[in-house]
Automatic annotation (TrEMBL):
Coiled coil: none annotated. Residues 10-171 form the Glycosyltransferase 2-like domain. InterPro entries: Glyco_trans_2-like, Glycosyltransferase_2, Nucleotide-diphossugar_trans. This is Glycosyltransferase family 2 protein. GO terms for biological process: lipopolysaccharide biosynthetic process. One of its GO terms (molecular function) is undecaprenyl-phosphate 4-deoxy-4-formamido-L-arabinose transferase activity. One of its GO terms (cellular component) is plasma membrane. Pfam families: Glycos_transf_2 (PF00535). The lineage of its organism: Bacteria, Pseudomonadati, Pseudomonadota, Gammaproteobacteria, Lysobacterales. It comes from Luteimonas gilva. It comes from the Bacteria. Keywords: Cell membrane, Glycosyltransferase, Lipopolysaccharide biosynthesis, Membrane, Transferase, Transmembrane, Transmembrane helix.
Length: 244
C-alpha cells in the first residue's frame, strides 16, 4: 500500500500524567483543524505513570490523524517535543501543552500569521495576554520574562507559552538541550530567522496537577539563561555562495 502524502501540519503534544486531559484536547484539535489544514497529531507520552497511554491507544482507533509515541525513559518536555518533531511528517509544527490550558482554536490564527509573514519568519509564538494561572505563577513569570528579555534581547513578551508554530527544518537545526523549548525565539533569532508573537487564549487547568513549581523553574532558568546567552555571544553567521 502506498504511503499517504505528508500532511501540511503536524501538531505535537508532549504529555506526562494527563489521562483526563488527553481526549478533550484531541477532540478540540480535530475540531479546530479539520477542513482548515491537512494535519496529523503526534502525542509523545513521557512514560506517564497513570492511564495516559491507555487513553491514547483507545483514541487511535477513533481519530485517524492521531499518532502515539512513548519514551522508554522519562526525559522531560523539551525531549518530548523534539521526539515529536523528529517523527513528524509535516513541514510545519504546532505545539501545545498537554494540560489543556492552550486553546487549539488558536492554531488557525497562527497559520494565518504564517501565511501573511515573510519567508524568513520561522516561528510564531503564542502570547498569553490574559493568563489563567495563580497570582504567584503570574508574578514569577513576569519577572522571569523581564530578566530573559534583558539578557537575551529576544523581543518576545512570553516565551513560556506552549502553543507555537514553527518550521520543522529550522527547529531541528537548533542546538538541543533540556528546557530548550522555553528559549525558541532567542534560538531562532540566533540562527538568523525572524520570530513573531501572536496573542492567544489561555485557560484554567481543568484536571490534573502542574509538573513545575516556581522554585524549580527559577533554579533551572538561571543556568539555562546563562547558557543561551553564551550561545548567542558565540554565534557566527555568514551568507554562502556556491562557485560555478
Amino acid at each position: 500500500m502506498a504511503e499517504s502524502p505528508a500532511p501540511q501540519l503536524s501538531v505535537v503534544v508532549p504529555v506526562f500524567n494527563e489521562q483526563d486531559n488527553v481526549a478533550p484536547l484531541v477532540n478540540e484539535i480535530t475540531a479546530a483543524l479539520r477542513g482548515v489544514a491537512d494535519f496529523e497529531i503526534v502525542y509523545v507520552d513521557d512514560k506517564s505513570r497513570d492511564a495516559t497511554l491507555d487513553v491514547l491507544k483507545r483514541l487511535k482507533a477513533e481519530v485517524p490523524e492521531l499518532r502515539v509515541l512513548r519514551h522508554a525513559n522519562q526525559s522531560g518536555q523539551s525531549t518530548a517535543v523534539r521526539s515529536g518533531v523528529r517523527a513528524a511528517r509535516g513541514a510545519w509544527i504546532a505545539t501545545l501543552d498537554g494540560d489543556g490550558q492552550n486553546d487549539p482554536a488558536d492554531i488557525p490564527k497562527l497559520l494565518a500569521a504564517s501565511a501573511a509573514a515573510t519567508p524568513d519568519t520561522k516561528l510564531f509564538a503564542g502570547w498569553r495576554v490574559n493568563r489563567q494561572d495563580s497570582g504567584s505563577k503570574r508574578w514569577a513569570s513576569k519577572w522571569a520574562n523581564a530578566i530573559r528579555a534583558r539578557m537575551l534581547r529576544d523581543d518576545t513578551p512570553d516565551t513560556g507559552c506552549g502553543i507555537k508554530l514553527f518550521e520543522r527544518e529550522a527547529f531541528l537545526d537548533l542546538p538541543y538541550f533540556d528546557h530548550m523549548h522555553r528559549y525558541l525565539p532567542a534560538l531562532m533569532q540566533r540562527a538568523g530567522w525572524k520570530t513573531v508573537s501572536v496573542p492567544v487564549n489561555h485557560r484554567h487547568r481543568a484536571s490534573g496537577v502542574s509538573k513545575y513549581n516556581n522554585l524549580n523553574r527559577a533554579l533551572v532558568g538561571i543556568s539555562d539563561l546563562r547558557g543561551v546567552a553564551w550561545l548567542i555571544r558565540r554565534s557566527k553567521r555568514t551568507a554562502i555562495e556556491e562557485i560555478s
